[in-house]
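Dear support,

I submitted the protein below through the web form. The confirmation email said the job was done, but the results page showed an empty box. After a refresh the structure appeared. I'm attaching both so you can tell me whether what I see now is the final result or a partial one.
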Amino acid sequence: MTHLMKLNNFSCITLLLTIWFTNTLLGNDYKEWGKVDPQYLEMTVYSEDTTASAIRIFDEGIIDLDVDGDIGMYLKRHYQIKILDEKGKDFADVAIFYLHNDIMTYLKAQVIQPNGEIIEVDSDNFFEEEVSNKYKVKKFTFPDVQVGSVLEVKYERFSGDIHELDPWYFHQSIPVLESEIIIHLSPFFNYQVLIANDPNKLVQHTTGKYYNRLRDTWKEEFRYKAVNLPAIKIEPYISCLDNYRANVNFQIKSIKYPGYYREIITGVISLCNLLLENSYEDFEEPDSETKDIVNKLVTPDMSNKLKAKLIFEYVRDSLTHDIGTSIYVRRDQEDIFEQKKASDTERNMLLKVMLQAIGLEATPLLISTRQNGLANPKIPFLSQYNKTILLINIDGEFFLFDARDPWVTYGQLPSSSLVDNALLVEKDNPSYISIPKDGLRSLEIIESHLNVSPEGVLSGNSQVLAVGYASSNYNKELHSHEMVSDVINERLADGIDGFSVINSDSSLTPAATDSFYTKFDFSIENFAEEIEGEIYLKPTVYLGESRNVFASEKRAFPIEFGYLRKKIETNYFSFPEGYSISELPKDVVIENDYLRFQRIIVKTQDNPLQIGFSRQYEIKQLKVPVEDYSKMRSNYAKIVDIDQDVIILKRTN
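What the results page shows now:
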């Protein structure tokens, strides 16, 4: 009996040690609420990045897939932020975005002061707002945030969608000392995993077992962790920061439990078939109302290109925009015509069936817009794509159509749709295609005839010609401001003191045109500076650069221009009697693989008080790799210096 009791005691101890070992080493070593390492309370500067205004001490997420209660995903997130300077106080304002159908079940936040004092955020100060029909946001503000404070947030959220779990981003806009996402899976679920944007292998992956004491069950545990992550900050000419933030994504492949097995998504074929069957089913063929409207727009004697143009313009111009982007549709053909409203994808799917009504082949094309981030063609995650455009076959020629932007003309994609790849959605035969982005897409030419007075007033007239995306931008701003003079002041004269439009084309109206043209008269007070009988003035009026947009000494990601562009400013100056040209800047050419800059100044032979000036700036390549950033930065700095050069006039009487 004694031996039996000893054995039972030993077994109990062994069981307890086993549970302790499992929870400690295989899963339950989670961050403790309210506990801050003293070194972070005392920290005044982050030695690895002395410019950092704040750091994330840690960022921990736990995802648990449950089938015992409500089938769904439970996310727990816990993080701490250390405030290092006054700018870091901006993190006192918190916004947590989540899907509209998800439920925020728990939210707690507090400030831990350097002296150890804790100030909790009152639950009455948590506010929920509707962002769109897809997202909600929970907002609050930390009280009494000081330099040196530690901000702590913990929340839990339930989602009934188990197909795609929330992606976890390791990099943030500030340095992150430790970031970890932990996944607990029952054997019923099989997920496909993608680690992206991690060329330096910062994310470490471990697996193990997790014992849930409350449910007395074992689960598979997957951990993805990275430490000492540098900040990923917004820089000029970058499409989306998410392209450079290390992240991990999960997409379900199959569900299996006793007596049940179902494959969800096993590859791109099942992805496309699922989309066609469940979302695009109503747009396989045009219905009777669609055919009637098409017959009112076109006549049989028209060419297919003209028919396509008229239908494109009808879809582009006749529907109001529904906020939110997605590859899915909520309305059918009848609903769209009745409501006169559509999302980006609904608009293009309606365009698809209208083109099919005239016998043209139109195929859906999934893209991730530039602002949404790059889509990875290796793994077909649905969440990668946020828009559907069209591939159209017109008499053997293929065109890309996107009727979203009201200022983009027929045959041109909005600049946001100029992405690296797209997924062609054909039943049982999907494929990836490249979207052409070569060729000059934007041209802006400004020509002016100018007079300089002895008092330093510059007056004259200018004419503006904009082609391609430059035309779209001018028309968009004209629609917003309604008056050409307002567009000139904002787009051309921003930052020019004393600029005033004297006369402009008041009859000009915005339109989706390939080119935009306008002319106007203007004057600028104190444009030239008179000093001891000499007049100093810059030959560039509108397009000169005053600062280097590439200010950072180093850059962690490429420069992305999106599309090729060119800007030309030509000025013809007439100078006042009683002066002579004392000094003219020299002609300059700066050129590398990615840009070309040229300045030319020519004296008029017939009149010594007249000169011609031309400034040209051209982007020659879409992307500048990181290794050439210093070259680009250096050349741009030279351009800024050149734009500060002046013409000097000397009094002769």
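Response: this is the final, complete result; the empty box was a page-load delay. The first helix runs from residue 2 to 25.
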